[in-house]
Amino acid sequence: MAMTPETKLSTPRNDLIRRLGSSTFNYWFGYVANVALVIWMVGHAFAHGTILLPWGKALALAAIGLLSWTLSEYLLHKYVYHVWQSFLSEGHDLHHRRPRDLIGVPWYLTTLAIIVLFRALNSFFGSSSLGIVMGFNWLGYILYCVSHHGSHHWAMGSGRWARMKRHHLIHHAYPEFNWGFTTRFWDRVFGTYAERPPTGARPSGSGSQSPEASR
Ligand SMILES: [Zn+2]
Ligand SMILES: [Zn+2]
């Protein structure tokens, strides 16, 4: 039987991934879990309402954490969602095919991963400094989640938001380009930036949205 996109979508494995990651509760509760994780991590820099670091150092670490998210976003999207094949890349493939469906990584997996990573790195760095860097890095993830949701569900007006949306919708149509989301910087650095649909390349996996939908 010829494998159409629709038949490929409804394999038992895809159905399990869809059940794990596409419940409306999972999608929205992920925000609650992620905000709680940020508070938990940043909370390591405080004791009895007092910050344990000089404010200047805390602000510098917060900026490092937030900015480092943009690189995390690029690398996680490229490798975890596209290059390394797993249930996560299959879940992301579902998102490429159905960009408006509420599909998210199961909230308990990201929560567990962050807690294990924090505990592991805590052996090497002070928990107050690590809490601020990782907390603000994860705040970047939350901001990405909101913006990414907007790119598939909201008009996003004009200017920077519209450019961000168009950048991402080009990725949906041409998945080898535009792995960054909140900034185009890393795509420029790594040579994967496409300002417009590349000439000669065939669109794939654009689902129900095309780059033209960003206008
Ligand atoms: Zn998307
Ligand atoms: Zn993708």
Structure description:
This protein is mainly α and 215 residues long. It has one domain (23-214). It is built from 9 helices and 2 strands, in the order H-H-H-E-E-H-H-H-H-H-H. It has a two-stranded antiparallel ribbon. Helix 4 (55-83) packs across helix 7 (127-153) and helix 7 packs across helix 8 (160-173). It starts with a helix and ends in a 25-residue tail after the last helix. The site of one zinc ion (ZN) has 6 residues, from helix 7 and helix 8.
A few lines on this structure:
With 215 residues, the chain is an all-alpha fold. Helix content is 63%, strand content 2%. The termini are far apart.
**Oligomeric form:** single chain
Low-pLDDT runs: 1-7
| Chain-averaged pLDDT | 88
Described by the principal axes of the CA atoms, the overall outline is globular
Structural class: mainly alpha
**Helix-residue proportion:** 55-70%
The separation of the N and C termini measures: 39 Å
Bound ligands, named by name, code or SMILES = zinc ion
Keywords:
binds zinc ion; disordered N terminus; 63% helix; 215 residues; single chain; globular; mainly alpha; two-stranded antiparallel ribbon
Q: What's the arrangement of secondary structure elements?
A:
Blueprint (H helix, E strand, L loop, with lengths): L4 H5 L2 H10 L2 H19 L3 E2 L2 E2 L3 H29 L3 H11 L9 H15 L5 H27 L6 H14 L11 H6 L25
Antiparallel strand pairs: 1-2
Helix pairs in contact: 2-5, 3-6, 3-7, 4-5, 4-7, 7-8
The chain binds zinc ion (2 copies).
The site of one zinc ion (ZN) has 7 residues, from helix 4 and helix 5.
